[in-house]
Amino acid sequence: MISRIGSREVMGMKGHSDELLMLLIGLLIVVLIVFKLKSWMFNTQSRLPKSVPLNDWIPEHPALDLLEKVGYEVMGGRIKIPLYFEVNQQQEYHSRLFIDYVVKDRKDIYYLVKISRKRLPMDWTGSGIRDQLLPYFLLYPECGGLIYIDMELGKNGIRRIHFDWDEEEWIGYDD
């Protein structure tokens, strides 16, 4: 009779330790799921944005060597983005934007690449960057930014540009 009571107590302890172990394992699984979901939701730059088209054909250019030397992997070649404007329902205008390459860095963050053009030099001021590059940021806000390459400067001509909204609020007139 004593041995039965002793075995029940041992069995009871073992049952509680199994429950405790299962509870800890369940809690660990929930924490991992929440962590993965959070990192997936808030790290949108680490996967190719669905809105960014990729051109599998990658034409040879000296910029490719520069990009690879500094750690970028070229994912796609030149992309033409056709634009259409209608003014007063009478006049139609057509234009286009070009993205030279799409690359990703070692952290799997994707960037659009623009190569400098002699006939359209970059004005390195806030308004100059806005005027020439803002359309790309607005079209593909999911990208990590834009890589601008000035071929005349070589490796020193690679600039990574990130766009974000400024904190300044202004509505109305200057005082």
How would you describe what is shown here?
- The chain is of the alpha+beta class and 175 residues long.
- It has three helices and seven strands; from the N terminus they run ααβββββαββ.
- It has helices spanning 2-42, 62-69, 126-139, and strands at residues 73-76, 79-87, 91-99, 101-104, 110-115, 145-149, 158-161.
- The strands form two sheets. It has a five-stranded mixed beta sheet with strand order 1-4-5-6-7, with helices on both faces. The chain has a two-stranded antiparallel ribbon with strand order 2-3.
- It is extended.
- The termini are far apart.
- The model has no long low-confidence stretch (mean pLDDT 83).
Sum up the structure in keywords.
alpha+beta, 3 helices, five-stranded mixed sheet, 175 residues, single chain, 36% helix
Write the layout of secondary structure elements.
Blueprint: H1 2-42, H2 62-69, E1 73-76, E2 79-87, E3 91-99, E4 101-104, E5 110-115, H3 126-139, E6 145-149, E7 158-161
The largest sheet is: 5 strands, mixed
- Uncertain residue ranges: none
- The count of helical stretches stands at 3
In percent, how much strand structure appears in the residues? 15-25%
Q: What's this entry about, in short?
A:
With 175 residues, the protein is α+β, with helices and mostly antiparallel strands. It has three helices and seven strands.
